[in-house]
Write a structure and sequence with these properties.
Helix content: 25-40%
Largest sheet: 6 strands, parallel
Number of strands: 11
Number of domains: 2
Strand order of the largest sheet: 3-2-1-4-5-6
Radius of gyration: 21 Å
Strand content: 25-35%
CATH architecture of the largest domain: 3-Layer(aba) Sandwich
CATH superfamily of the largest domain: NAD(P)-binding Rossmann-like Domain
Number of helices: 9
CATH class of the largest domain: Alpha Beta
Length: about 230
């Protein structure tokens, strides 16, 4: 059964989160009081609704109490974020994740009993730091100061080798989570190729690394650096 996620606030962050989660197979309900923002995503999510999320009644009618998680992605409007969170708590939503706007906002959310928070700007800064430090890292998710999950282009010297031959765990202390394979097909009415990314699932020892593969790896930053440098 697909994860059911409601996202309230369809600014740049909320809109992209809604689309990304939908593409990952989640059932997404996108909510904003601005009809223009709702219309911009209505064909890309399961349901898009224009309403005032600070009021309990419309949230209750939408059935948000029954979703797996609600992300309050409202930016800038400090008061609306807090009122929306309070309304969600009143109707009985079990899991709420809030976008944090400021340190004061964070303190107030903690007083309301909210402990799952995100700061998109900080996440983006950390991801950029990883890319700059490791060179070829596309995305990075920091699990702790020491360990991360990263997506990295397969080094050229990996191409043509099997997962078993790479011996990533033995040589570098890294775990291969999955492989994302870029597949290309001729574009219609143009000479451009269209790109499709296929996730190969749990890697088997016999899988062969191909050119343009993206490796999803778990490990320490220094070990990832050694792998990329071919040490």
């Amino acid at each position: 059964m697909a994860l059911r996620v409601a996202i309230i606030g369809l600014g740049h962050f909320g809109r992209n989160l809604a689309v990304d989660l939908t593409e990952m197979g989640c059932e997404v309900i996108a909510v904003d009081r601005d009809m223009g923002k709702v219309e911009a995503v209505q064909n890309r999510v399961a349901l898009a609704v224009a309403l005032d999320a600070t009021e309990q009644a419309p949230l209750r009618k939408l059935g948000l109490r029954d979703v797996d998680v609600v992300v309050v992605a409202i930016g800038e409007d400090f008061q609306s974020s807090l009122l929306t969170t309070a309304s969600l708590q009143e109707i009985g939503v079990q899991r709420i994740i809030n976008r944090v706007i400021s340190p004061v906002h964070e303190r107030l959310l903690r007083l309301m009993g909210i402990h799952e928070m995100i700061l998109p700007e900080a996440e983006a800064a950390r991801a950029l730091a990883h890319r700059l430090l490791l060179g070829k890292v596309q995305k990075a998710f920091e699990l702790s100061p020491e360990y991360s999950i990263v997506e990295v282009d397969a080094p050229q010297h990996f191409v043509g080798k099997t997962v078993h031959q790479l011996q990533l765990r033995e040589r570098y202390g890294l775990n291969l989570v999955t492989i994302k394979r870029r597949e290309y097909s001729p574009g219609l009415l143009s000479l451009r190729r269209s790109e499709h990314v296929r996730v190969l699932g749990v890697p088997t020892p016999e899988m062969v690394i191909q050119a343009h593969d993206v490796l999803v790896l778990f490990g320490r930053e220094q070990d990832l650096q050694r792998m990329l440098e071919g040490a």
